[in-house]
Amino acid sequence: MSTAEEASRRTRRRPMVRIATPLAPVTPPEASEGQPLSPAAMIFRQPQLNCHIIAILGFGKIVGAEEVKAGLEATLVRHPRFSSVQVTDASGRQKLRWVRTKVNLDDHVVYPDLGPAAVAGDPSVGDHFVENYTSALFRSQLNPSKPLWDLHILAVRTSEAACVAIFRIHHSLGDGISLISLFLACTRKISDPESRPSLPEPRRRSAFVIPDAKSRMLLIWIWTFLVYAWNTFVDVFIFFISAAFLKDTKTPIMGTDGVEYQPKRIVHRTISLDDLKAIKEAMECTINDVLVGVTSAALSRYLSRSYGGCLPENLRIRTTLLVNIRSTAGITELADMMKDSGAKWGNQLGYILLRFPIMKCENPLNYIRKGKTIADRKKKSLEAIFTYNSAMLIVKFFGIEAATALCHRILSNTTLSFSCIVGPTEEIGFCGSPLVYIAPTVYGHPQILMLACFSVNMQALTMHFQSYMNKMKVVLAVDEVVIPNPNMLLDDISESLRLIKAAAIRASRS
């Protein structure tokens, strides 16, 4: 029996502490007892894509059971998605519906017996324990008769934190933007414990505006429209042929037959957000452009070493890049998200197929230039909106199984998943303890995937970037059979960032 499974059976104490500033109960405008799951939530409930979100949280001090349970009672449990179960209705269509229930926090908050790791005091022992514990969670499942989330508190010292918590949340409850908005609503500033964190200023997405027909701007608008239309057409065409037959090149980081049966391991590393900003300023691009370039350089280094220094040309390595399609980009206040506004709660995700340039470059800045060119073109395409809406249309006309099969084929024919989420810009606290880092990732149960997988190449590598204060956390979820030393890939990311920053500084001085 795994460590996580043993821990879930242990007796836990009830809370004795109250939180002074509870989160007001929130109810979506359409929420009522028995509301059906959205099509996107239903897709994440299918066996092929039964996805869960894992968020590893590092704390500056140990958080006690009473504090955690009292804090959750006053905040998280008040949200309807975290206090509802998914129940099959009695109609002939057998739809899943959200039904509110009484939440017993003893069923959701786990304090496992840490054994030797608790008394070792060696951060490296703690790091290894957390990695093994998280990997063990992949082999267990959330109880469908209860709200689909749990929280594991590991009072063990690691190289970065005095205590680690692991949130496990089913993806049908919401996407990363929704969940981090809720989490931030449950936290407070360390500098001002009565205030909630300040969020990065949300950006309104650009929209087509028809100018005065007598001005030259009309021609610019027409040209922009044609560029968007052509890029979207090309991307949609590639999307369909990728679902049909176009696969990525077989490389050492591509999943092999049977990878869906393998457990995953999560590793993470902190890099400097200031370093990324320095490259951004020098290259006049965005942070996302820099991340694409750094990732391309790191993958090129890793693959070159795997091929004995002879990196093949024209490798097709693509990512399914998850994109927030809400009208307001970035993190939104929870209260606004629960209103009937453009920033909706739930799974508002499209995805685009982005090809990483894999090549050897004498000048490291060429990775950024190439990545920026690719990213700029993708920004002038409506591919993400198309992938989301096409899935909804397929659900409507052909059923949830057809939409799930389409998503599954796309994931099977690409190499990795990739996402970047903006976090708070100041230090925050949760249940009275300062938060040191946030490390999110996603996984699906391998034993469930085998019910629908027949000789397909599921992704062996998932990569997430999460910013917090002046730091960026790089998180990898890997199949150890395919990538036996994921820390080596983290080393390549760190070294690529160092080389690119040094080249950017030299270029700015010349």
Sequence of strands across the biggest β-sheet: 5-6-7-2-16-15-8
Helix and strand composition category = alpha+beta
Largest sheet: 7 strands, mixed
Count of alpha and pi helical runs: 15
Our measurement of the CA-to-CA distance between the termini, rounded to an integer number of angstroms, reads 61 Å
Unreliable sequence segments: 1-32, 445-458
Number of separate strands: 18
Main location: membrane
Subcellular location: Cell membrane; Endoplasmic reticulum membrane
GO molecular function, one term: long-chain-alcohol O-fatty-acyltransferase activity
Membrane topology: Single-pass membrane protein
What's the gist of this structure?
Its main location: membrane. A hairpin with a 2-residue loop joins β15 and β16 (433-444). α8 (273-283) crosses α9.
Task: Give a written overview of the molecule.
By secondary structure, this protein is of the alpha+beta class. The chain has two domains: 3-189, Chloramphenicol Acetyltransferase; 208-423 and 471-509, 2-Layer Sandwich (Chloramphenicol Acetyltransferase). 36% of the residues lie in helices and 20% in strands. It is built from 15 helices and 18 strands. The chain has helices at residues 3-7, 39-43, 65-74, 116-120, 123-137, 176-185, 217-244, 273-283, 287-306, 334-338, 365-379, 383-398, 400-412, 446-449, 486-509, and strands at 35-36, 51-59, 84-88, 96-100, 109-110, 149-154, 163-170, 188-189, 203-204, 264-272, 318-324, 328-329, 349-355, 416-421, 428-430, 433-444, 461-468, 471-479. Strands 5-6-7-2-16-15-8 form a seven-stranded mixed β-sheet. Strands 10-18-17-14-11-13 form a six-stranded mixed β-sheet. Strand 6 (149-154) and strand 7 form a beta hairpin. It is globular. The termini are far apart. Residues 1-32 and 445-458 have low confidence and may be disordered.
